[in-house]
Amino acid sequence: MGWAVKSIVATLGMAAVLAGCSNETNPQNTNMRTGEPITDRETIFSIFGNYDDPNVTLEVNRYIWDASLEVLSFLPVTSADPFSGLLVFGYGTPPGGGTAYRATVHVKDPALDARSLNLALATRAGPAAPDTVRKVEDAILTRARQLRIADQGM
After folding, report:
1. Both ends of the chain: CA-CA distance in Å?
2. Which positions make up the signal peptide (predicted)?
3. In the predicted model, is pLDDT for residue 71 greater than 80?
4. Highest mean pLDDT pick, 5-9, 39-43, 125-129
5. What is the residue extent of each domain of the chain?
6. If you average pLDDT over every residue of the chain, what do you get?
7. What is d(CA 53, CA 101) in angstroms, rounded to the nearest whole number?
8. Span 62-152 CATH architecture
9. Which end of the chain is more exposed for a tag (fewer CB within 10 A), N or C?
C-alpha cells in the first residue's frame, strides 16, 4: 500500500476509536421545544429571487441623470445603472481641450439639489483640479434645471 492510502486508513481507524469513547449510550433531550417550521429562510440562491420590498426604493433624479449624459457627452459611457444612479464614463477629450478626462457620476437622491450629485473627475495623471470638477458640477446642475423647466412648460 502507498503512503497516502495508509494515512487515510489510519485516520479512519482513529476516528472510529474516538467515536467509541463516548460514555453516553442514548442521550435524551428533555428540554426540547417545538416551534413553527421554518419556511421563510434565505439561502445562497435567494440572491436570484425577485423580491419586491415596498419599503426599499432606489430613486434618482432624472433631470440630473439626463443632464450628466448631455454635459459629458464627449465621454464614452462605460457603465450605467439607473437603479443605483451610477454613471461611469471612460476617457475622452472635451471639444477644444487637450486633456483627456474620465468621470464617475453618482446621482444619490431624487431631489434636484447639489447634494444629490456626486462627481469624480480624473485625468490620466490623477484627479482633476477641484475648480474643473466644480465647473462640471455647475454645468450638470444648470442643465438639469433647464430640463426641468422645459419639462414643466414654463
Report:
1. 90
2. 1-19
3. yes
4. 125-129
5. 62-152
6. 82
7. 39
8. 2-Layer Sandwich (3.30)
9. C
CA–CA dist 115, 31 (Å, integer): 57
CB-count burial class (<10 Å; 0-12, 13-18, 19+) for 132:
middle
Residue 111 contacts residue 117 (beta carbons within 8 Å): no
Q: Beta-carbon neighbour count of residue 64 at 10 Å?
A: 29
Query: Cβ(61)–Cβ(116) under 8 Å?
Result: yes
In the DSSP assignment, the letter for residue 49 is S
Residue 69, phi then psi, degrees to nearest 5: -65, -35
Please state the pTM of the whole predicted model.
0.62
- For 103, the grid coordinates are 468621470
Amino acid, single-letter form, for residue 134: R
Cell of 135: 465647473
